[in-house]
Amino acid sequence: MEMARLIYVSRMTDAREMEAIHDILEKSRENNAARNITVILCYDPLFVLQCREGPKNEVNALYRRILRDDRPSDALLLGYKGVQERGFGNWKMAFIKRAEIDPNTLLAFTRGEKLDPYVLSYERAGNFLVTIAAQERERLDTQR
Ligand SMILES: Cc1cc2nc3c(=O)[nH]c(=O)nc-3n(C[C@H](O)[C@H](O)[C@H](O)COP(=O)(O)O)c2cc1C
Fold this sequence. Notes:
About 40% of the residues lie in helices and about 30% in strands. The protein is α+β, with helices and mostly antiparallel strands and about 140 residues long. The protein has a single domain (about 5-144), classed as Alpha-Beta Plaits (2-Layer Sandwich), CATH 3.30.70.100. Strands 4-1-3-2-5 form a 5-stranded mixed sheet, sandwiched between helices. A hairpin with a 2-residue loop joins β2 and β3. The site of flavin mononucleotide has 15 residues, from α1 and α2.
């Protein structure tokens, strides 16, 4: 099965805290593992920018379920494309708080503007997520 990457941005309906999303993802962990889906998520109190990678049919099915879920609002699909390989290897889930992103990385992507993922292209959002996931990975590795 061809692999695909899906990137979307949404908000939460009831201004839930990051921990709530973290809980949802914890609960999704088994689902995602069984479906070979990996996740990169960038959380800001104002939005959740997310990437899902995995087999095309599974990524599609997950997005349909998420759209039926009434917790996310203003979901905007930034893009969906087939990929040769995952952008962040076999790491199952990268959960990154916007406030913890390296300021220079943020600056390079936003060119000094406020980060608004609703106006990002699929390519730019993908590069951004893959970059911050790699940095988070490095940070966690050096903590060990
Ligand atoms: C921000 C957010 C992220 C989510 N990510 C996932 C995910 O990665 N995997 C998953 O199975 N469900 C995820 N869900 C939950 C789905 O929306 C849905 O509730 C779940 O897949 C169960 O769907 P079902 O009841 O139709 O089987 C997420 C929900 C939210 C609000």
